[in-house]
Amino acid sequence: MGSFSLSLSSTHPCVILPKQMIDIHCHILPGLDDGPESLETSFAMAEMAVADGISHVIATPHANSSYPFVPELVKERRDEIQSAFDGRLTIATGCDFHLSFENLQDIRHDPTRFTLNQRNYLLVEFADFSIPASLDQALHDLQLAGLTPVITHPERNPLIRAQPDRLFRWLRQGCYTQVTAQSLTGRFGKSAEIVSDEWIKAGAVHFLASDAHNLTTRPLRLKETFDLVTKKYGEPQAQALLIENPLAAFEGRPLPHVPELAPELGSTDSDSHVPGRKKRFWFF
Length: 284
Hints:
Oligomer: single chain
Number of helices: 9
Helix content: 25-40%
């Protein structure tokens, strides 16, 4: 795949207020994907976010073969919610970008239609059943275009959990990772909980986000995870993962907190996500 150019708009309406949590991955817009079906549910999710101490949400509907991404419709649904929450919650848009052939062709022509708050960060979602080697080049081409890929919920992907050094190599290439907040509380199973903990300790996590879809099983809440991270790793880590790095992504700035990976993680002779563990060989 060849490289392509990127031109970012300099006019953005959203203004950040500091010291409140910012959710960069949320399915809050109604009737677009497997998120809320009604506007009433979307309003209730927005109220939940405000009550939880979230000041900014980026609405990121899926962009894949099951859910076509139509920016004009996304903006229309966003505007409906924003008009009811002005001064209480700021809602921007982006998408959960699947690395399909069609999407990679479309992003050549208008990259910012897919990015977070129409800046330079792009949420990238991998399939659970296959991650072909060609996607390494696809990620590189996105970077050549001036985009910064953010790998979404890798802790929930069994293929990445099985071969985490591939993820670590993407991080060394300049990508970032976003872990689902509820993974740390066990909502997505013990395996996701364990690797989330290990990867935070290893400096391999850059964002925590809700990936909210509804009011019950996938709620728009982050405070519980903020408190858990504060207790386990310290408040500066919680601030970095839930406020300061998300703020930078929202504004299109370099991340202020990018820990250095241990030398053995992602190197050509490392095949484990825990230093010292016996090597194992996996095939995608």
